[in-house]
Amino acid sequence: MANKQRLAQYILRVTGVSIDPNSLFDIQVKRIHEYKRQLLNILGAIYRYKKLKETSPELRKNSTSRTIMIGGKAFATYTNAKRIVKLVNDVGAVVNNDPEVNSYLKKPTVLHNTFVSYALLFSKATSGIDVVFVPNYNVSVAEMLIPGSELSQHISTAGMEASGTSNMKFALNGCLIIGTLDGANVEIREEIGEENFFLFGARADEVPQLRKDRENGLFKPDPRFEEAKQFIRSGAFGSYDYNPLLDSLEGNSGYGRGDYFLVGHDFPDYMDAQARVDEAYKDRKKWLKMSILSTAGSGKFSSDRTIAQYAKEIWNIEECRVP
Length: 323
Hints:
GO molecular function: glycogen phosphorylase activity; pyridoxal phosphate binding
Strand order of the largest sheet: 4-3-2-1-5-6-7
Order of helices and strands: HEHHEHEEHEHEHEHHHHHH
Oligomer: single chain
Strand content: 5-15%
Number of domains: 1
Number of helices: 13
Shape: globular
EC number: 2.4.1.1
InterPro entries: Glyco_trans_35 (IPR000811), Pyridoxal_P_attach_site (IPR035090)
Family: Belongs to the glycogen phosphorylase family.
Distance between the termini: 43 Å
Largest sheet: 7 strands, mixed
CATH class: Alpha Beta
Helix content: 40-55%
CATH superfamily: Glycogen Phosphorylase B
Keywords: Carbohydrate metabolism, Glycosyltransferase, Pyridoxal phosphate, Transferase
Mean pLDDT: 89
């Protein structure tokens, strides 16, 4: 809680937005890229927001209060990555000013630097949704974000993450992970126990066939996925033309089309996993136990063990003990 309060103070200082340390702090911070699927994250948040608006105030009280933060840098010429950042900002501005889902309104803040650096925070109102965006994500900011997080999203398309290690840092700091079987997620889940990891999505060996099925017109989108996209197209988040971004999720094949990163395929499984997160967080003793076991099982990822293994298996060098 002390780390969450410190993070909340930092967010207030750099964005002017007040967030509730009692809400679930849900963070995705990494380079903005289509394969890392920040788009999947924001589409899930959009669907959550839409359902909250359609829910009665009484039923809203039963929802898990959540603060979603997205941060990272988009390369200057990577147009779709910048569109994703734009969408996250636009959604945040709307959600933060919607009295139906926010008990205290927040002034929308769009922040950036010369390298297109961004971070967004979604917050859920009292038992609802809150949203904010954290600027200039870097190692210094990570030193506050990671210890203050409770859920971390590592949701890349299976088989595409080369050597990401931030998930290890999150696990070592008491954070639970929602993610695919990709990159270090595979080893982390093995070490901490599958019951302490929120898994979803296609496996790496399934991806080629799923892409081929898509090319052959066999993909049938989940209604929730279509609903989230249509909500964007309705102009709910402003007049910006998001069709070029959404078109990348459409069709069966073609450059920049055909949903190469399987956002549509994994969306329903992702939403189901997020529902499991909501339920687990309501049971604070269960969540605490999962968090402790996750951290306790992460010892394999220490730098001492890693360097010792490299020395033995790759460098073929012996210890040189200090007298």
